[in-house]
Amino acid sequence: MSAIPDTLLTPRQVADxxxxxxxxxxxxxxxxxxxxxxxxxxxSALLAMIVAAAVATAMMNLYVDVQAKLRTEFRNYxxxxxxxxxxxxxxxxxxxxxVEFVLGSKTLAVPFSYAVARTKDxxxxxxxxxxxxxxxxxxHWWKVxxxxxxxxxxxxxxxPSSTPAIPSEALVGVRAAAVxxxxxxxxxxxxxxxxxxxxxxxxxxxGAGEDSRIFLDQSEFQNWTGVAPSTIEVAANxxxxxxxxxxxxxxxxxxxxDIRPVRQIMEGEANVLxxxxxxxxxxxxxxxxTSALCVLATLIGWVxxxxxxxxxxxxxxxxxxxxxGFFAAEAAALGVxxxxxxxxxxxxxxxxxxxxxxxxxxxxxxxxxxxVLVGSxxxxxxxxxxxxxxxxxxxxxxxxxxx
Amino acid sequence: xxxxxxxxxxxRQARRKLLAGIAITLGVAVATAMIAVATDxxxxxxxxLRSYGANLVVTPQxxxxxxxxxxxxxxxxxxxxxxNEADLPKIRGTFWHHNIVGFSPxxxxxxxxxSSRLSALGSQNVTLxxxxxxxALSFGKEDFxxxxxxxxxxxxxxxxxxxxxxxxxxxxxxPDDNSQNILVGERLAAKLGKKAGDTIEVSGRQLTxxxxxxxxxxxxxxxxxxLALAQQILGKPGAVRRVYVSALTKPQxxxxxxxxxxxxxxxxxxxxxxxxVQSIAYQLQEVIPHSHAEQIRQVAQNEGTVLSRIKGLMxxxxxxxxxxxxxxxxxxxxxxxxxxxxxxxxxxxxxxxxxxxxAIFFAEALLLALVxxxxxxxxxxxxxRQIGRSxxxxxxxxxxxxxxxxxxxxxxxxFAGSAAAIRRAVKFDPVFALRGEG
Lengths: 403, 438
Description:
The structure holds two protein chains of two kinds. Helices cover 55% and strands 16% of the residues of chain A. Chain A contains 13 helices and ten strands. In chain A, strands 1, 2, 3, 4, 5, 6, 7, 8, 9 and 10 form a ten-stranded mixed sheet that branches. In chain A, strand 2 (108-118) and strand 3 (124-130) form a beta hairpin. Residues 152-164 of chain A have low confidence and may be disordered. Chain B is built from twelve helices and 16 strands. In chain B, helix 2 (14-49) runs parallel beside helix 10, helix 2 (14-49) packs antiparallel against helix 11 (402-427) and helix 10 (354-392) packs antiparallel against helix 11 (402-427). At the A-B interface, helix 3, strand 3, helix 6, helix 9 and helix 11 of A face helix 2, strand 2, helix 8 and helix 10 of B.
């Protein structure tokens, strides 16, 4: 700016200089000065705004993400869809590939094939062929002393009296173990005249039907019995509607199979998830409302505190619209700054909660931001306009006199 | 003089006190409701997790292997050992009987089914399972009812209503436990061409189908009948093959998995008196002779994880709620005190010391906190009840011990929120305050 005082210039020149100078209108300057001069009060109002926005962001983020997190937890319950070949048939060889193609690589599909074999002393026992790596991922609750090494080449003995075979590894259910291999010795099983020599690699305990069964690797099982998988257990991710859609898709793809959602798992999951979601929703609403209340209390105090500014402006002839606009702009600015800062802090808080409770980070949802922004500005505006409405009725002179 | 100043302050500045009081009330109400919900959520979710079905199974100790593929039992029907039906009500006599939500006995029997459609193919072997639907039993002086309708909540039955003794809609299609009526699995019914209300010949008996059962599991290919009927068909009165027990349990920890035989008496008592799935299984074995009780790991192992996750989440959310309400209360108090600088100036000009002035403000804050805390606690209790009723269909109980805790929190938060504002108000020069600058 030049050093020539305004009084030496013609009005025309003054006007020109104002146009050229950095354009800070009176309005903006009033806003800025208000924030700078009353730093402390402005800072406490801003702090309240930031905290409220942060808490709201964290709650909304959690609300959206926790459902996905809990669904992952619920997948530990195992398969929620079972595909069974119709009328005791086996699947065509490409069935598993088809299922995986439809459901995507993230979904776990585990084939099972069944046969009833006989032990040396004529006991019937159910033998299951499966893929151990996948079964282990699907059934977290299986208590297994030692998993068999996958893909050991089958050594098949057609004639039990021939050279001693290297026993194949099997996973033996605890109740079956008591019958077939009480001393953890290798044992023989016979299926339609063909005998296989098996060594128990580990023992399986589930408390359910699996305890009475013997599990083999699928390729060994097929070499021995010639029976292909007749059941595929699927852990499909997603909401009930998404799982239903996958079921319909599978039904089209595999007309020769029965696709059954496992109602026990699906309904239990839906039940618990709905209740948790509803509780979280109620809690999040309460928390967000409380933080809005916090903003309201602080901002009302802030505006009330500045009733002298208000009175001076009015005494100097400011229109009501201008004053309202001024306080509204101030509140809106506070709301915007608070929302932006609070949003990032809130995302941090949500991520921390995710790590502490679910051992997995909560993905930041930027889609929440518009809601936080609009909510913050709205609360700020309400808390600014409310006291202004009250002050408007008072004569400026009374306020200035300090009453 | 002191009480009068406080009294007059409330009388003359009723509006401001009301605002601060409302803030405290709302803050305390939210805190109370959240604490109540968070302390009760474990129990509530535990009950919801029971919709996954039984988490324990009791089998005879000397049982032979199950030979079952795809829901079809290949084991000879009279093979193996049985439990005695008369022992079952004793389950209500275990230490943790309040935690046992329900139990259902199962007795699978292989039967021959004749139907018009299958007559060309001859009769067919089908598994018939005898069980309790909602059987009225009594143990000692206690009457209770239990069965698959409690332990297997995902079983859905469609059938006509009102022909039996139970006209309630929820009971539609379910047979009576003392009748000769049966449920037929939906896939079996489709194969046989039967629907609810038809009669069917099962191993030479004419039985009425009261409803069609849909479970999404092996029962869809089976017949489910009252236990007594299955025992008659098998010719073994009182026989039960296995019992499913649904119990509320505590997530397992290091103590839970220890072997009770190696424990010292104190540890054993602690283990026995904790509702672990292992200790409940142990107690079931004690009351049912010659039995072996085991957890169904698919259900029992996972519910602990889910439960602790949800509880942890609610704890963190409750902390957030407490933080937000503490902040709201302090903000309201700070505002209320900051507005009264002129008053402070006047008092100090008249010779009041900093201590006296602070004492007046703290007394006012205490009064506000107590009144607001009381109102907030009642409002919060109502809120928690509402949440409990609308979400879980059951009461959320508020522990009476919570009341002093909540009140203490309210007083503490109000004091903490006022402290900074009071300090500033007291430090303010009375001259400036009285001149109206500030």
